[in-house]
Amino acid sequence: MDDRRQGRMTKDGIRIYDREDYAGMLHAGELAARILDEIAPLVVPGATTGEIDATITQMVQDAGATSATIGYKGYQHASCISVNHVVCHGIPGDKRLKEGDILNVDVTVIVDGWFGDTSRMYAAGTLSRKAERLVQVTHDALFKGIEAVKPGNTFGDIGHAIQAYVEAHRMSVVRDFCGHGLGRVFHAPPNVLHYGRPGTGPLLEPGMFFTIEPMVNLGRPETKVLADDWTAVTRDKSLSAQFEHSVGVTEDGVEIFTQSPGGKFHPT
Ligand code: MF3
Ligand code: CO
Ligand code: CO
Fold it and tell me: Cα of 108 to ligand 3 centre, how many Å?
C-alpha cells in the first residue's frame, strides 16, 4: 500500500491527511461559512430559531451537500442555535428572538465526504455592553488559539492561549465541551481542549485537521444539559458565547477552512 496516499495515524490516534485533502476540506468549509454569511440578515428580533434552521436546511440541499447533524445521534436539525445562556447544542424551534439576544449558529455540512464545521455569534438588534464584550473576547480567544497552531507546538499550547486570554478578561472557559479532529469523519481524536498548560498534549503536525470552538461564560464555567438531552446551559444562567473554525496544520502554520467569504465572521 502507498503509505503517502493513505495518510497515517499518530500514536494518539490522530489522522495525518495528505496534501490533496486540504482542497476537500476547503470546499466543505467554504459552504458552511457561506451559509453562516447568508443567514445573517435573518437574525432579527421577532424571528424564530426554527425559521433560521429551515433556511439552513434548504441551503444545504440547494448546494447538493448533506447536513452532518440531521440524524446524528438522533439530532433532527441542520444547525444548533444557542441563545443567551445556552452554551451549545440549542435545538431550533418556535422561540422568538428578542432585542439584545446573542446567539450562536453552528452548521456542519458534508461535501464530497469532507466535513466542514463552523459556528459564530449573531446579535438580534442592539447588544448590552456586557454581551458585546463577551462576544468580542470569545472571538479573539478563538484567534489566540488559531495563532498557536503550527508544527512543533502542542494541543496544550492552543488551550493555554485561549484560557489565558479569557481569564485575563475575568471570564471563564467551558470545560465540559471541546473541539475535535474532523476530516472524513465528524468527530475524531483528539479532544481539542480550550484550556491547558503550554507544551502538554500531542504535538501538532502538518496534515492534522481539527476544530477549535471555545465556549466562554461571563460567569462560572459549569454547565448542565436540559431534559431534551441536547441543550447545554450555564448553571449560573450567565451569558455564554462561542466561535468555531475548522483548521488544518500546514508546513509553516495553519489554514482556516471555514473563513467567511463575505468577511462577516464577527457580528459587528
Ligand atoms: N457542530 C457541533 C460541533 O461543533 C456538533 C453538533 S452535533 C448536533 O461539534 F447533533 F448537536 F448537531
Ligand atoms: Co465542532
Ligand atoms: Co460545530
Answer: 6
pLDDT-derived band at 3 (thresholds 50, 70, 90) equals: very low
When pLDDT is averaged across residues 208-213 and rounded to a whole number, the result is 98
Residue 99 predicted with pLDDT over 80 = yes
CATH of 8-256, one of 1.10.287.3510, 3.20.20.70, 3.90.230.10, 3.90.550.10: 3.90.230.10
Ligand 1 atom showing the smallest separation from residue 244 Cα: 4
pLDDT tens, position by position, 121-158: 999 999 999 999 999 999 999 999 999 999 999 999 99
Query: How high is the pLDDT of residue 39?
Result: 98
Q: For the segment 220-231, what is each residue's pLDDT rounded down to a tens digit? A: 999 999 999 999
Q: How far is the CA of 3 from the centre of ligand 1 (A)?
A: 32
Determine the average pLDDT of the residues in 180-206. Answer: 98
Longest alpha-carbon distance in the chain: 58
Q: Quick check: CB of 213 below 6 Å from ligand 1?
A: yes
